[in-house]
Specification:
Radius of gyration: 17 Å
Largest sheet: 5 strands, antiparallel
Low-confidence stretches: none
CATH superfamily: LytTr DNA-binding domain
CATH class: Mainly Beta
Number of helices: 3
Number of strands: 11
Strand order of the largest sheet: 6-5-4-8-7
Structural class: alpha+beta
Number of domains: 1
Distance between the termini: 50 Å
Shape: globular
CATH architecture: Beta Barrel
Mean pLDDT: 82
Strand content: 35-45%
């Protein structure tokens, strides 16, 4: 059974989709892209995970990745896409989400993900570069 995953765009905006549809023989659903916490590949199946649901679809990561062209999404490894909007923290090799879910990554991948998450956090307007030295001095090693 093939599942059809299609983007839904805002009216007049064909650049950034706001939802994706999941259509199969048994299930029809709309998932807001902002609600997606992570997308994980398990063999031929993709798990599109939100805070309260896990949608299993047969689709390629390449197709889904093309729909998520947003600075909030990061692909640390080939079979995983993480939405930084829902990440609570990154600690001891785990990416912890606000919903309580966690994903474990290897040392090199967790370092790269932590650096990208730091850039993501620093891009917010409340961040002020003049306090960077103070924050670095306070952080435990």
């Amino acid at each position: 059974m093939r599942v059809n995953v299609r983007p839904i765009y805002n009216e007049g905006d064909r650049v950034k989709p706001r939802m994706i549809t999941i259509i199969s023989a048994a299930k029809v659903a709309r998932v807001r892209i902002d609600d997606i916490e992570l997308i994980e590949k398990d063999g031929r199946i993709l798990h599109i995970v939100t805070a309260d649901r896990d949608y299993c679809v047969y689709e390629s990561m390449k197709t889904i990745d093309a729909m998520l062209q947003d600075e909030n999404f990061f692909r640390p490894i080939k079979g995983l896409i993480v939405n930084f909007d829902h990440v609570r923290d990154i600690d001891n090799g785990y990416v912890n989400f606000e919903s309580g879910q966690s994903v474990v990554l290897g040392h090199n991948n967790i370092c790269r993900t932590r650096n990208e998450f730091r850039k993501y956090l620093m891009s917010y307007p409340p961040y002020e570069a003049e306090y960077e030295e103070l924050r670095l001095a306070e952080s435990p090693k």
